[in-house]
Amino acid sequence: MESRKNWALLATGALAAAAVITAAQVLVLGATDRAADPAPAVPAADDGDRPAAGISADKQIALQQALNRVVRQGSSGAVAELAVVDEQGRDTWNGVAGVADRATGAPVDPQAHFRVASLSKPFVAATLLHLVERGRVDLDDTVEELLPGVLDGGERITLRMLLSHTSGVFSYNRAMPDVREDPHRRWRPQELVAIANRRGPVFEPGTDVEYSNTNYVLAAMVIEKVTGRPYTEAVDRAVLTPLGLEDTSIPTDSEVPGPAMHAYLAAAPAPGLAPEPTDITHFNPTRWYGTAQVVSTVSDVNRFWEALLGGRLLSKPTLARMLEVQAVTDDGYGFALGPRSYTLTCGLDVWMHSGNIPGYRTWTVHGGGRHLTLFQARYTKDPDPPAWAMIETALCPVHGDRPAPTPGDHPTEPVEDTGRGEDG
């Protein structure tokens, strides 16, 4: 496993430094308070978009064509927003394709509510770092110190390792039953960690990097232990309410707030036949406790990342710690404390995250003053190149005659095919 990590991080360090310089320019937080943890006094994002450098008509056509291709390759519907922010203001493009409900043919709402899957993780990371900022916990505190007896080997695993996926803890979802077997079952976080304990570690803590949903189950449990309230409420107080993200919630039951995008899974078809998707919109999200529970819109997710990277959520020093890449995989992902760094084929350095749970595939990518969030209601094991092509079309300054990205151009994202959700 040693070949999979890179601890020098010179290039990604420059990316973090650039983000922190931006944060310093717009920082609104003052000195931190080590007492109680009221919601941070952060102004909500400006709801009124002002003319920015703009998104040209040609760019809008290219974006819509790219979104249409995403749907043609195994998604019932998709919605995306590109926001361009510069010194003049903010301009947005919002596109939809396909249908929200295959049964009724209802069109996709541009502000459809969506299970954002692992795009939930940066919300949890920001909440935990808010507690770090206030002196409630430290990134070098161990799991055993904070959650005694919960995780085997927890005395060697720190909060920093959890947030950066360098803990070596087994990802519990890889050993869970298919979600369709009991979709409304409510899972307790202790049950999820117990699955990881039974499987044991996949490497020594701090020696490698591997994506594990168990890390964020534990992070959410730490938030609950420190604040004395459900982690869902802590995220609301630290992130959602201060930023005015009124279309974002963290449900603990099977319902999705409307207008909702339906989710589908397709069983293996008979030879020569197309797969027949089954509606699986309504399932209990606690099987992804702390890792993939958030429901949001493309606009709210973009606003969250704009505020996070722009220094309106965490202080300059805390943001710098969040964006310090801890390890880089062979396929080019830099794992920081929540966000991931990556370099697109056009050379643009971006911060991003992606998500994948049954029926849903999600992406959020940010760089060069551009912010793209894409939601797919995906029901087959279609490849990710159409989504990557959409990302490059949206963020790269010149798309021109370059061919669409191929599977070898980008990291291979885990793809859900059993109902478990390999990514979360």
UniProtKB/TrEMBL annotation:
Biased composition (Basic and acidic residues): 410-424
Segment forming the signal sequence: 1-23
Keyword annotations of the record: Carboxypeptidase, Hydrolase, Protease, Signal
Beta-lactamase-related domain sequence ranges: 69-365
KW Protease (keyword) present: yes
Enzyme type, top EC level: hydrolase
E.C. code: 3.4.16.4
Entry GO MF terms: serine-type D-Ala-D-Ala carboxypeptidase activity
Organism for this UniProt entry: Streptomonospora nanhaiensis
Domain of life: Bacteria
Keyword Ribosomal protein listed: no
Protein name: D-alanyl-D-alanine carboxypeptidase
Residue segments, region Disordered: 399-424
